Amino acid sequence: MSIVKSTTSTATVGADRSGSWMMTAAPTRLMGIVNVTPDSFADNVHRSVTDAIDWGVELVGQGADLIDVGGESTRPDATRVDPEDEAARVLPVIEALAGAGITISVDTVHSSVAAAAVRAGAHFVNDVSGGLADDQMWSVVANSSAHYILQHWRTPFSHRPTHEAVVSEVADELWERAQSAIEAGIDPDRLILDPGIGFGKTASQNWELIAHAQVVSDLGFPVLWGVSRKRFLAQAYAHPTQPWQRDAAGASITGLLARQRVWAVRAHTAPEHKAAIAVAELIRAEA
Ligand code: PMM
Questions:
Q1: So what's the pLDDT on residue 20?
Q2: Catalytic residue, candidates 29, 190, 266, 274
Q3: Alpha carbon distance 152, 177 (integer Å)
Q4: Looking at the domain assignment, is residue 218 inside a domain?
Q5: Residue 74 Cα, ligand 1 centroid: separation in angstroms?
Q6: How far does the centroid of ligand 1 lie from the alpha carbon of residue 285, in Å?
Q7: Domain assignment of residue 88, given as a range
């Protein structure tokens, strides 16, 4: 059985989910991405269930601390997926990886998929709509033992940018959504925030949010950042790039965020991001 270790202790991750996982004064964790979709923007592959399980195990072997399993792409031109089809994609992968002792997050906006995923062993519900897509999501999470990743996306499933003062707007809206989620019964100790890089934001607004990452951390909740392979990273290259050619740029942002010890980063590959986190920790140790 494969056992994932916490970055700060030798305790089995998942055994004490509210303890080791939610500690913020710890090195940044790496959430590895396993998309069981035909149309993810970032890796251009259609993973079968078996491929997805193998890839999850490989990411953990390369240092990922937890695995985010998704069955619906959020790319601008993606086709929306029926919750039953989405569940059929993700549940066997979650069962297998959680059964192997790997800490699992389910990337879904659907409450029915979240509920089934938690029953199948998922420890985190990662909702890119922050509860806006499904009005049952918060009660499902509140009535489960799962942690909830509340991502900012002002206009779920529309990628048209609507922000003017992006940093203050994202911080204010995340704070309001967090308070509403808590009022709906979600334990504040199980809440993680995510500024939603690339979700209804322009490239310069994404850079601006990263430049002011501390404003999001100052909300007082653990924060997850997902920059991996996103389109705005193309600006870091002098030549056109495919998403899978942007890992150096993504990992350099991981290093900057890890220097501030954000709670976690979400990435498609592990080695570059683990090295970036290690570099940040080596510098911290001497600071
Ligand atoms: N980005 C994507 C999907 N899910 N979840 C969170 N919490 N944060 C993100 O930034 C995020 C996410 C889009 O990327 P993908 O299609 O490569 O998974």
A1: 58
A2: 266
A3: 9
A4: yes
A5: 8
A6: 31
A7: 27-286
